[in-house]
Amino acid sequence: MPDQPVWWEIKEPEDSQVWSDFRLTFDFNPSTSSRDWPSFREPVPSVTCALSTEWDAAASEEFLALMKGHIRACARPDEWVYGLDPHHTCCRYNPHLLEEPAPDALGYRDPWDGFVLPNGDYGITLADDWRWGTLGHPWEWSLCVFG
């Protein structure tokens, strides 16, 4: 696919289908209330870790670099990964082809920033066949890594 961009926005009807499948597969029920957590069924096997509520820029960059390396290690060279956020534009990207973009006006480097760490919204990264991924919870301050 030489003419294809390394990342692009998911459009309808794919967006609705992906979210429908995600909700069913992971029993996703987003909520800000701790009585409703976890908001998704954690796959087996998986590891869920607590995230700090006090990130400085250096810690964020270090963690993001670590996660980018893990995503690239998990993804096949020709694999298109999903980046999902229930309240914002979602995308597909190839982590092996994605170069480090300059930050936008808000300081984000899509698609890495919005989907790897929960940043006020759920941050979800999934393999194209969902065999591995990360599920970040923005109010529980947790990150589930599976696959």
What features would you describe in this structure?
The protein has one domain. Helices cover 24% and strands 20% of the residues. It contains three helices and seven strands, in the order E-H-E-H-E-E-H-E-E-E. The protein has helices at residues 14-26, 57-74, 112-116, and strands at 7-9, 46-50, 81-84, 91-93, 123-126, 133-137, 142-146. The chain has a seven-stranded antiparallel sheet. Strand 3 (81-84) and strand 4 (91-93) form a beta hairpin.
* Strand order, sheet with most strands: 1-4-3-5-6-7-2
State the major sheet: 7 strands, antiparallel
Considering DSSP H and I runs of 4 or more, what fraction of the residues is helical?
A: 10-25%
How large is the count of helical segments?
A: 3
Give a quick set of tags describing it.
single chain, 24% helix, 147 residues, 7 strands, alpha+beta
Please give the structural blueprint.
Elements: E1 7-9, H1 14-26, E2 46-50, H2 57-74, E3 81-84, E4 91-93, H3 112-116, E5 123-126, E6 133-137, E7 142-146
